[in-house]
Design brief:
By secondary structure, the protein is mainly alpha-helical. Helices cover about 65% and strands about 5% of the residues. The chain has a three-stranded antiparallel sheet. Strand 4 and strand 5 form a beta hairpin.
Length: about 240
């Protein structure tokens, strides 16, 4: 395991400059518990170190993936305790390589062009319920997930009630999150741990990023295949019972 032995030596101004954020942002994150408190040195001056920099970089990456501060707060609460700056850097590499395509802003016209059809208000509500998009602050502006748009448009043709869509989405989110948490623990304990024994920090981060990028499509295909098989068996059993 790589141990971070560097003493905290940065003032809040230096930390903010190194991280590319404002001092106000650092203080705001600290007040919300997203950053651990600084080490208090002579003259009661707070000092920050590599761990604070790495955590700020991870927060920035999570925000880039579209997570709200509340979601980031919950995410950080579930990280293993005692992570070093190096561990956080590896974690950030994994987050970046496993994250889905970034969300995009679109006008109503752009949304309909991508969907390949006109969209009424009920269609927009149903797409929002599926998690395909969220309404923007301006009129006819949206934040959408391009990867889900095609699936969402196809589902618009299926006669499923709005409430059923919400219930189905809640079930999928609950169980996929549970699977993701279990797989993450397995990945951390059986795959991440051996790489932490390497001597070079940069080699560890690069190796984990490359490995996780190769594993991502394999894990996704395995999950889809397992779900298809399970759903087929459950539907067959349900209709046989009827």
């Amino acid at each position: 395991m790589v141990v971070d032995t560097e003493e905290p030596a940065l003032t809040v101004d230096e930390l903010a400059a190194r991280a590319g954020v404002t001092v106000r942002t650092v203080r705001f994150y600290s007040a919300r518990g997203l950053l651990p408190p600084p080490v208090i040195g002579p003259r009661r001056v707070g000092r920050y170190g590599r761990g604070h920099l790495s955590r700020l970089a991870l927060i920035d990456e999570l925000q880039h993936q579209g997570m709200t501060l509340a979601a980031i707060e919950r995410y950080l609460e579930h990280l293993p305790p005692g992570l070093s700056a190096h561990d956080l850097a590896v974690h950030r590499a994994l987050v970046a390589s496993w994250a889905p395509d970034s969300e995009e802003d679109a006008t109503r016209a752009e949304l309909e062009r991508r969907a390949g059809r006109g969209l009424g208000e009920e269609d927009i509500d149903r797409l929002a319920a599926m998690g395909v998009l969220v309404r923007g602050e301006g009129p006819d502006t949206y934040r959408l997930d391009p990867g889900l748009l095609r699936l969402g448009v196809e589902l618009l043709e299926v006669p499923i009630a709005y409430e059923t869509i919400l219930a189905a989405r809640a079930v999928l989110l609950e169980h996929t999150r549970e699977a993701a948490q279990t797989l993450t623990r397995l990945f951390r304990d059986e795959v991440w741990a051996p790489y932490r024994e390497r001597e070079s920090d940069q080699e560890q981060v690069a190796a984990m990023k490359s490995l996780s990028a190769h594993m991502r499509p394999l894990v996704v295909r395995a999950l889809v295949t397992a779900f298809q098989r399970s759903l087929k068996e459950e539907l067959r059993a349900a209709f046989q019972a009827e």
